[in-house]
Specification:
Elements (H helix, E strand, L loop, with lengths): L7 E2 L1 H8 L3 H9 L6 E3 L2 E5 H14 L2
Antiparallel strand pairs: 1-3, 2-3
């Protein structure tokens, strides 16, 4: 049985999704609030990680 690979987003896609700047996205990655991986030197963020971040912020009442 195979499972589908998670959708990977680029930093600009996450910027657009969260409506924040590049620096903020990298800050979220650096502080481990967004999970990311490197693919040949390019940073990629699983879409689930963005969803988890949003849900966590909502739960905190931010």
């Amino acid at each position: 049985m195979t499972t589908a690979a998670p959708e990977l987003l680029t930093v600009p896609e996450v910027m657009a999704s969260l409506k924040v700047g590049r620096t903020k996205v990298y800050d979220l990655i650096r502080t481990h609030r967004l999970v990311s991986i490197k693919v040949d030197g390019c940073r990629r963020i699983p879409a689930d990680s963005v969803g988890d971040f949003i849900c966590g912020q909502i739960e905190r009442g931010a």
